[in-house]
Amino acid sequence: MRYTPAILIGRGVRVLARLRKPGGGSAVPGLVVNRIAPGFLASALNGFPQGLVIVSGSSGKSTTTKMLVAALRAHGLTVFTNSSTANIKQGLTSALLERASLTGRVAGDIAVLEMDEGHGAAIAPTLTPRVVALTNVMVDQIDRFHDSEMVAALLRKIALRATGVVVINADDNYLADLGTDVEAGPTGARVDRYGVTAAVFEANPRGLGYTHTRSERLAPGDGLLVTAVNGRSAQFELGGVNYPVTLPARGTHYAVDAATAVATARAALGSRFDAEVAIAAVGSIPPVFGRGEIVTVKGEDLEFVLVQNPASFQLNVDSLEPDTEQILIAIGSDVRDPSYFWPVDTSSLRHVLIASGSKAHDIALQLVYDDVVVDRIEPDVGVALDAFLALPRPTQGLKTIIFSADGMRRARAHLGLATNAEEPV
């Protein structure tokens, strides 16, 4: 009962925060509880009967987590998870407050949590995850993570806390080295690997955003391989058996997210794992909050494409339907230094109708240097969206909005859509 007062105070703060700012303030209760009961977060996360699963890495965390949760639930487990907007310490605590009893226990067989690299590393010493899944190491959030070596070091702190299995992308050199450290580490954790075949990599000449050495790292029958990708369809090889896979959105990066989820489900479930059940569950989820999501506004279908780092920008641009006719790009204040995106080759877009967001002029300049025609620069996202929606329906593809996280929040708010991902369940 030692956490009861903190839980009651946290819930009271949440009510007040929502009264003050409807739809917002969700991290405030977590900040308060972490201050007055610093042990609550670790106690709750370490208290699930079948343990804690952590998903972290530079990119792909949200999609992988949602796929993994679906796979575990399809096997009959009750899963506690967090939304993609609650992957830092205070957000995790706020998510737990929603479900915790007054004794600080959270109902469920297992917890599956997406964790920000930095915040995950900070709380890692207090956690005993049974499984840790690591997606990749990329140039990401350069205002926080100065280089890839820093990200790898943060992920290492998380991985070395695993007591059972660490699941890694064998095609990422940083993670391959980290896997070797885990196998020699003090907890005796096993390392499971997944990756793509040389054929898949060679069909994607821009790569997958990380230093790629192909999955010759994986011996035949060792780990899970993505053997083919075609739009929203893929094929996996696992244990000598080939499985067709449906993806929530186009692109090899989504196939890799699905592979991460299936490999992690296998690690978490052990002998109970059924590959067909897991893969069917992974193929059943809708796109994750802005990541290839299609919404209908005023009778018009819009495709949302979220870009959060140079690799995701490149991969999403490359996977757009050919000859997509109407494109709006909104890059906002979350991209503090626009040169962050300069490595991205946007030339395949060919024609962008509107560049918007607080970095509208910067992204327009990059597009023009890549020989992309830009019809209009409009920093006000609301004005840009109204003009975009007023256009006749395209004859080729959907109206497509490419945005950074800030651009996404502003666009969704203007369109009357939810600005936060789904609540934890």
UniProtKB/TrEMBL annotation:
<comment type="subunit">
    <text>Forms a heterodimer with GatD.</text>
</comment>
<dbReference type="Pfam" id="PF08353">
    <property type="entry name" value="MurT_C"/>
</dbReference>
<feature type="domain" description="Mur ligase central">
    <location>
        <begin position="55"/>
        <end position="182"/>
    </location>
</feature>
<comment type="pathway">
    <text>Cell wall biogenesis; peptidoglycan biosynthesis.</text>
</comment>
<dbReference type="GO" id="GO:0016881">
    <property type="term" value="F:acid-amino acid ligase activity"/>
</dbReference>
<keyword id="KW-0961">Cell wall biogenesis/degradation</keyword>
<keyword id="KW-0573">Peptidoglycan synthesis</keyword>
<comment type="similarity">
    <text>Belongs to the MurCDEF family. MurT subfamily.</text>
</comment>
<dbReference type="GO" id="GO:0046872">
    <property type="term" value="F:metal ion binding"/>
</dbReference>
<protein>
    <recommendedName>
        <fullName>Lipid II isoglutaminyl synthase (glutamine-hydrolyzing) subunit MurT</fullName>
        <ecNumber>6.3.5.13</ecNumber>
    </recommendedName>
</protein>
<comment type="function">
    <text>The lipid II isoglutaminyl synthase complex catalyzes the formation of alpha-D-isoglutamine in the cell wall lipid II stem peptide. The MurT subunit catalyzes the ATP-dependent amidation of D-glutamate residue of lipid II, converting it to an isoglutamine residue.</text>
</comment>
<dbReference type="InterPro" id="IPR013564">
    <property type="entry name" value="MurT_C"/>
</dbReference>
<dbReference type="GO" id="GO:0071555">
    <property type="term" value="P:cell wall organization"/>
</dbReference>
<dbReference type="InterPro" id="IPR043703">
    <property type="entry name" value="Lipid_II_synth_MurT"/>
</dbReference>
<dbReference type="InterPro" id="IPR036565">
    <property type="entry name" value="Mur-like_cat_sf"/>
</dbReference>
<keyword id="KW-0547">Nucleotide-binding</keyword>
<dbReference type="GO" id="GO:0009252">
    <property type="term" value="P:peptidoglycan biosynthetic process"/>
</dbReference>
<dbReference type="GO" id="GO:0008360">
    <property type="term" value="P:regulation of cell shape"/>
</dbReference>
<feature type="domain" description="Lipid II isoglutaminyl synthase (glutamine-hydrolyzing) subunit MurT C-terminal">
    <location>
        <begin position="306"/>
        <end position="379"/>
    </location>
</feature>
<dbReference type="GO" id="GO:0005524">
    <property type="term" value="F:ATP binding"/>
</dbReference>
<dbReference type="GO" id="GO:0140282">
    <property type="term" value="F:carbon-nitrogen ligase activity on lipid II"/>
</dbReference>
<keyword id="KW-0436">Ligase</keyword>
<dbReference type="InterPro" id="IPR013221">
    <property type="entry name" value="Mur_ligase_cen"/>
</dbReference>
<keyword id="KW-0479">Metal-binding</keyword>
<keyword id="KW-0133">Cell shape</keyword>
<keyword id="KW-0067">ATP-binding</keyword>
<dbReference type="Pfam" id="PF08245">
    <property type="entry name" value="Mur_ligase_M"/>
</dbReference>
